[in-house]
From TrEMBL:
GO MF terms, alphabetically ordered: nucleoside diphosphate kinase activity
Organism: Esox lucius (Northern pike)
Name the record gives this protein: Nucleoside diphosphate kinase-like domain-containing protein
Family statement drawn from the similarity comment of this UniProt entry: Belongs to the NDK family.
Upper lineage: Eukaryota, Metazoa, Chordata, Craniata, Vertebrata
Active site: H342, H476
Domain Nucleoside diphosphate kinase-like: 225-359, 360-502
PANTHER family: NME/NM23 FAMILY MEMBER 8 (PTHR46135), THIOREDOXIN DOMAIN-CONTAINING PROTEIN 6 ISOFORM X1 (PTHR46135:SF5)
Length: 505
């Protein structure tokens, strides 16, 4: 097309890719009526366009007609031209209006021309306004979740003008709320038959009862943080450990706990006892015991469903064929028929799985003498906030004999007598803390022995914040399972031992 046709004709005709590119690059708003050969361009919309041109007409508003068959980008509209009008600026699709809807066409043109004017006036200072009122619910159906298509769908959403603001799991579906990044209505074509998108306030209210659609999109409350168990099987762990850990991280999971472990035949059979008798059972057990595997406790919102969604089909060949993007396809190991990644199927199963690989541990925590009531309460609050349960608690003054026994490993050190004096001069708070990984996590909360070193390396730890000196360093924690058992016995005697053993079962 030429400058002259543009001036004299209301709509330029675009009939090949070159013209399409040229039309998209020109400045201002481009309104394209997409038609199909058998019905021709829509006469009714031309009247509306002419009216708009006279009313708002300036060189920021251009019209075109294009045949769906001629242009690759428009080919998805074949059979759907009712008519369909597309609105472009700077080569980007901004909005779609279907059908001869005069008021909507006029309103859309007016709003978008207005945006073009602002862009022209403000240049690089122009910031698009965000319309918080436009929300959609995306339902990702079970087949798509199980088929490992979640990530492909997420990419499509974020490549468009939509932002994922909330998500939740329900039955075996994922529900997302997406909201518009920009100021106009736009349809999203996910190009996936498994994904239905609907705009319906009843759905929103049902699945996201706390969503406040008038609030800032980022402030919407994200669903609960969950934990799930992921297993990286021995062959993958040997060959591509760093890569799979990076991928897990990239997908927004935190690794709350990890443990490398070589399972015995018995342990593997117990873990997969529901699969006993299947033809793949011997291969699975063989693979599970062929070396160390890595057990991970992964956390993020809806961790269980998200991790399952990424894994894809269980059978490696099926994963490769149907969901090549899925992790089981991406991280398949040559000549190994068993998939390399496990994930719990439900939150209940996740809890059971996690307990197997990260059993509840008990540790002895002590708030050392001279604490104030306020300090005691604030340390106990921190303990609870960190997710420990306090299985037993007592306040008691150690006798000198008990203090000597408690710190017997330090006999002969220059600070030993001072330490025994300090520990026996007033009451201490003695607690049994229970949690997976309790020993390590409580020691991390305490921080290094010397508060000066603690202030440098971990300023939020208890010793950095409350310790007076390396000797009077506020808190104690067992250093290993044996110490924990010995000291719990020393302080609490026989009864809790039985309680603890019962809990461990
Ligand atoms: N160099 C030192 N000078 C003075 N006191 C020390 C010194 N090193 C350790 N202590 C005291 O002895 C306690 C036991 O020392 P240890 O090396 O076991 O440290 P910890 O395991 O960090 O502390 P805890 O056993 O009390 O949990 C310390 O908490 C501290 O009260």
């Amino acid at each position: 097309y030429s400058y002259y046709t543009f001036i004299y004709k209301l709509q330029i005709e675009v009939s090949n890719e070159e013209q399409w590119k040229e039309a998209l690059l020109a400045p201002g708003l481009l309104v394209v009526d997409v038609y199909q050969r058998w019905c021709g361009p829509c006469k009714a919309v031309q009247n509306i366009f002419r009216k708009c041109k006279t009313e708002y007409g300036d060189d920021l508003l251009r019209f075109a007609v294009a045949e769906a068959d001629d242009i690759l980008e428009l080919s998805s509209l074949k059979g759907k031209c009712l008519p369909v009008c597309l609105f472009y600026s700077g080569g980007k699709l901004l909005s779609i209006v279907r059908g001869v809807n005069g008021p909507l066409l006029q309103k859309t043109i007016l709003e978008l021309v207005d945006v073009e004017k602002k862009k022209q006036q403000l240049g690089s200072k122009y910031v698009p306004e965000v319309n918080h009122g436009t929300y959609c619910v995306v339902i990702i159906k079970p087949d798509a979740v199980a088929g490992g298509q979640v990530e492909a769908i997420r990419k499509k959403v974020s490549a468009s003008h939509w932002i994922l603001t909330q998500y939740t799991g329900y039955f075996r579906c994922l529900f997302w709320v997406i909201s518009l990044r920009s100021n106009y209505v736009q349809e999203v074509d996910m190009g996936l038959s498994d994904c239905s998108i609907e705009m319906d306030s009843r759905q929103l209210a049902f699945f996201f009862p706390t969503l406040n659609v008038t609030s800032d999109t980022q402030a919407g409350s994200i669903s609960e943080i969950q934990k799930t168990l992921a297993l990286i099987r021995p062959s993958l762990l040997r060959k591509r450990k760093d890569e799979i850990l990076k991928t897990i991280h990239d997908f927004g999971f935190q690794i709350a706990m990890q443990r490398e472990i070589t399972l015995t035949d018995e342990q593997a059979k117990e873990f997969y006892k529901d699969h006993d008798g299947t033809d793949y059972f011997p291969g699975l057990i063989n693979q599970m015991t062929s070396g160390p595997l890595l057990a991970l406790a992964l956390t993020r919102e809806d961790a269980v469903l998200h991790w399952r969604g990424l894994l894809g089909p269980k059978v490696v060949d099926e994963a490769k064929e149907k969901s090549p993007e899925s992790l089981r396809a991406q991280f398949a190991i040559d000549n190994v028929a068993i998939n390399q990644l496990h994930g719990s199927s439900t939150p209940e199963e996740a809890q059971r799985d996690l307990n197997k690989f990260f059993p509840t541990e008990h540790t002895l925590a002590v708030i050392k003498p001279d604490y104030t009531q306020e300090l005691r309460d604030s340390i106990i609050n921190r303990i609870k906030e960190a997710g420990f349960s306090i299985s037993q608690v007592t306040e008691k003054k150690l006798t000198r004999d008990m203090a000597e026994e408690f710190y017997k490993d330090h006999v002969g050190k220059y600070f030993y007598n001072h330490l025994v004096d300090y520990m026996s001069r007033g009451p201490s708070v003695m607690m049994i803390l229970s949690k997976e990984n309790a020993i390590t996590e409580w020691r991390e909360m305490m921080g290094p022995t010397d508060p000066e070193q603690a202030k440098q390396g971990s300023p939020n730890c208890l010793r950095a914040q409350f310790a007076k000196s390396i000797l009077e360093n506020v808190v104690h924690g067992s250093s290993n399972v044996q110490h924990a058992m010995d000291n719990i016995m020393l302080i609490f005697g026989d009864i809790p031992k039985q309680t603890l053993l019962k809990k461990e079962k």
